[in-house]
Amino acid sequence: MKITLSVIKADVGGYVGHSSTHPEVLAKAQELLEKAKNDGLLVDFHVTRCGDDLQLIMIHQQGENNDRIHKMAWDTFMECTQVAKKLKLHGAGQDMLADAFSGNVKGMGPGVAEMEFNERESEPVVIFMADKTSAGAWNKPLYKIFADPFNTIGLVIAENMHNGFSFELHDVKKAKKIVLNAPEDIYDMLVFMGAPSRFAVKAVRHRDTGEIVSVSSTQRLSHIAGRYVGKDDPVCIVRCQGQFPAVGEVLEPFTHPHLVAGWMRGSHHGPLMPCPVAQANPSRFDGPPRVIALGFQLANGKLIGPRDMFDDPAFDHARAQSNQIADYMRAHGPFEPHRLHLEEMEYTTLPAVMKKLGSRFEEIKD
Ligand code: 13P
Ligand code: 13P
Ligand code: MG
Ligand code: MG
């Protein structure tokens, strides 16, 4: 059965501040997607949230970039924004950057990850959703999952993935893309992937078959809007098992809470803390950044699940380490590298301060 898995997300308002999502917003989204399912547009769906980001996980047969699916998601976010406005939630409609829908939510504010594929005999998928960070946050885990044999032993001992995976990298500032192959291109690949503020992995494919295995949202709201409106708080879909990495190989990289950009005012680095959905309420200094992982088995387009994959004491050490790293990074206060590099700041008073003090700068003569 050919199906499309679409994850479309937006921050339509935070409760309280930017920390979480109000139950009435979730209930509205649930009601509208239920209607879309009854109308036959969706085969199945699951509504959740990570921090203040509302997540619509949808299975349908309309293909990628489909007008009807995107419009339904857009309309859902708009109606949820009305609920957020009624409750005066924080930043109601934060990611809804256009007044009217024009065919596709890409470039309008919401984040999108979609993939169309033939459902296998067993089709386990894991959907990662993050808050207080940007799409480049997936670069390191995706490298570990699909290119590092110290993480994914299947690359070494499973014949059906021994020829590796190809990575589609996007230059999010220049709007260009390149495909590189692991293992032979890994040194070149890491030149780009190691710079996640600029390059983000959009898709990963199985080289022997060309099958899609992973897709991420790579929209950068700050670039879309031309001004600060929130980090994009990305999502990433990964198909697992068989010719793809095992579920455990896909989750393993998150035992290392790597530093990502997007904490407090979208302007600080902090550790990416893996946590269950119930704990994805970034509150300390609006963080630290969170990632949740929902696992599903697909059955003829039905989402069997979710299983809350980070709801496992095996991730307790990563959470404890995240808190230690958070203390260490916070102690830097307004200094880099806790604070982002000047060009990466979502907010800055630099132009105003320069205007005020510019005339007091003197040439250094020797
Ligand atoms: P969101 O992008 O999740 O709305 O967070 C904004 C922010 O920077 C909070 O400090
Ligand atoms: P706002 O109060 O405008 O949301 O700004 C602070 C913040 O948290 C933004 O990230
Ligand atoms: Mg917000
Ligand atoms: Mg958010």
Structure overview:
By secondary structure, the chain is α+β, with helices and mostly antiparallel strands. It contains ten helices and 15 strands. It has helices at residues 23-38, 67-86, 139-147, 154-157, 186-193, 221-225, 247-251, 263-266, 316-330, 350-357, and strands at residues 2-10, 44-50, 53-60, 111-118, 123-131, 165-171, 176-181, 199-206, 212-216, 235-239, 259-262, 268-271, 273-274, 290-299, 302-308. The strands form three sheets. Strands 5, 6, 7, 8, 9, 10, 13, 14 and 15 form a nine-stranded mixed beta sheet that branches. Strands 2-3-1-4 form a four-stranded antiparallel beta sheet, with helices on one face. Helix 1 (23-38) runs antiparallel to helix 2 (67-86). The N and C termini lie far apart (73 Å). The protein binds 1,3-dihydroxyacetonephosphate (2 copies) and magnesium ion (2 copies).
Architecture blueprint of SSEs:
Blueprint (H helix, E strand, L loop, with lengths): L1 E9 L12 H16 L5 E7 L2 E8 L6 H20 L24 E8 L4 E9 L7 H9 L6 H4 L7 E7 L4 E6 L4 H8 L5 E8 L5 E5 L4 H5 L9 E5 L7 H5 L7 E4 H4 L1 E4 L1 E2 L15 E10 L2 E7 L7 H15 L19 H8 L9
Parallel strand pairs: 13-14
Antiparallel strand pairs: 1-3, 1-4, 2-3, 5-10, 5-14, 6-7, 6-8, 8-9, 9-10, 11-12, 14-15
Bound molecules: 1,3-dihydroxyacetonephosphate (13P) (2 copies) and magnesium ion (2 copies).
The site of one 1,3-dihydroxyacetonephosphate has 15 residues, from helix 8.
